[in-house]
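Give me structure tokens for this 264-residue protein.
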Amino acid sequence: MLSVTSAQLDAWLAAFMFPFVRLLGMLMAAPVFSTRGMSTRVRLAIGFGIALAILPAAPKMPDIAPGSGIGLLVMGEQVFIGAAIGFTVRLVFAAIDLAGSFIGMQMGLSFALFFDPNSGGQSAVLADFMSLVATLLFLALDGHLMLIHLLAASFEWLPVGAGLSGAGWAQIPRAGVAIFSTGLLLSLPVLAVLLVTNTALGVLTRAAPQLNLFAIGFPVTMTVGFLSLVLLMGNFAPVAQSLFERGFAMVPPLLEALTPAVAR
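Here you go.
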């Protein structure tokens, strides 16, 4: 007769629940998976399938009952760890959104806003366009598979039950500091062209005051901006790929910083 003890049941549940909870935390914040177009049921099904797939390769989980107080605390830690991994990679898309907002504002499209269901608020049209292109490139470059690989490797870098270092959370704001500079550098070619265009229009208006700046300036700025954007899109793929690699490279130092000194 087959008999299962409570200790064996707790070990089986711990072996599945701890990776599953960390995976769900990543799916809540990671790009592509965190969009509102993906329902909660689909997200749970994806998390369940990926957890089963990485379970044989995952290291041994601690002998902690998931239903105990310590087990619930460890599960909460796994949610934060997974969310930190997904959010770190999501910062790359935030930089691309910021670049689109800069370009749209300089082109005179700051009023071109619409409700974005993913963010739950209004967003610039060009920012959403560049974010959509970045998402397609992310999927084409197997970024979602790299994200899953990072999560599977995170159990080696930061084992379950090792605890968390409070000083490690400061790595996320430091990574967020690079958003503004990265977005500005990404949009800088178009901004430079538009700056020259606006300067030329100002000189032209000064030389011929009878010209209506609002009548000719807006179409010229729009045309030059779209032409510059087309040229930018021709070289956008390698730039986006380097940004994705940079986002993935920020995850191991983050997990190392989150690891307590005792567990290293």
